[in-house]
Amino acid sequence: MEPQPVRPFLHVIPFAVGQAYLWRDGEEISLIDTGPPGSADAVEAAIRHCGGEPAALRRIVLTHFHLDHTGSAAELAARHGAEVVAHRADAPVVRGQVPAPPPDMAGAPEWERAVFDQVHAPFGITADAPAVPLAPPCQVDREVDEGDVLELGGGATVLSVPGHTQGSLALLLPEHRTLFTGDTVARIEDAPAPGVFNQDRARTITAFKRLCALGARESVETVCFGHGAPLATGGGETLAQAAAAHS
After folding, report:
1. What confidence score (pLDDT) does residue 9 get?
2. Is 107 exposed, middle or buried (0-12, 13-18, 19+ CB in 10 A)?
3. What values do phi and psi take at 88, rounded to 5?
4. Which of 40, 190, 197, 212 has the most Cβ atoms closer than 10 angstroms to its Cβ?
5. With 0-12 CB in 10 A as exposed, 13-18 as middle and 19+ as buried, what is 1?
6. C-beta of residue 176 within 8 angstroms of C-beta of residue 222
7. 137: Cβ–Cβ under 8 A, 6 or more apart, which residues?
8. Interval 121-131 mean pLDDT
9. Residue range 193-217: average pLDDT?
10. Whole-angstrom Cα Rg for the chain
């Protein structure tokens, strides 16, 4: 599928499961997540479609270690020498140094368990035996944590939002009033909601509420979810309404 514009310098790249985001600072390109394994060619095609060159890929920011977000990071980094950025708590999993902790599906509602089984069926995984498949191991060049600032979009502040995974992160770009939530917030049935397949449900909900409050407080316009269509405008207000609905 072709990349879809969110703003002139921001595109979403959809995959069969999940999505990645392409951010342009002039000729320099940053990628937030990479899609599942085997998506490198599609990412390069998306960059060209947006008028860029894959060789201009400078950094890859991984919001967490799950397969649909990190799957093509190693291949893209090897092809273009891009810096790979991940939260320090998830970095050992991304590198393949430790096994991926599974989500806690024990208390999940039936619909979430059904979706989990459907998404993970190709890997022989069910909600009753939820081992999480690993993406190909990938180097992490820069480990980040709460408050670190990345050189994209005039400065992207890292927010540590554990729950979906221990090292889940979000990015706030104040200059552009843009928030990348990773899978801490998803857009489900057209409304923001806590993400699914979480290691720690309670912490995910806490992180969800934090991002919703932040979006309203910072007058965020654009919200980019790990799953679900991004909101180009009105994101902060929509997040505030979502927080109220989940209070």
Report:
1. 96
2. exposed
3. -60, -30
4. 212
5. exposed
6. yes
7. 74, 94, 95, 96
8. 66
9. 95
10. 17
> CA 105, CA 99: separation in Å to the nearest integer?
18
Instruction: State the pLDDT at residue 244.
Output: 87
Average pLDDT over the chain, rounded to an integer: 93
Q: Are strands 28-32 and 57-61 parallel, antiparallel or unpaired?
A: parallel
**Structure tokens given for 152:** 């994209």
The pairing of beta strand 149-150 with beta strand 185-188: unpaired
pLDDT grade for 112, boundaries at 50, 70 and 90:
confident
Q: Summarize the confidence of residues 42-48 as an average pLDDT.
A: 97
pLDDT at residue 97, as a whole number: 95
C-alpha 182/C-alpha 186 separation (Å) is 8
Question: Do residues 244 and 192 touch, judged by C-beta distance below 8 A?
Answer: no
Measuring CA to CA, which residue among 21, 37, 19, 41 is closest to residue 29? 21
| DSSP string for residues in the chain | ---EEEETTEEEEE-SS-EEEEEEETTEEEEE---STT-HHHHHHHHHHTT--GGGEEEEE-SS--HHHHTTHHHHHHHH-PEEEEETTTHHHHTTSSPPPPP--TT--HHHHHHHHHHHGGGT-BTTB-PPPPPPP---SEEE-TT-EESSTT-EEEEE-TTSSTT-EEEEEGGGTEEEEETTEEEETTEEEE-SS-S-HHHHHHHHHHHHHHHHHTT--EEEESSSPPBSS-HHHHHHHHHHHT-
Cβ proximity of 123 and 133 under 8 Å = yes
pLDDT of residue 177: 98
- Enter the tokens of residue 7: 């703003």
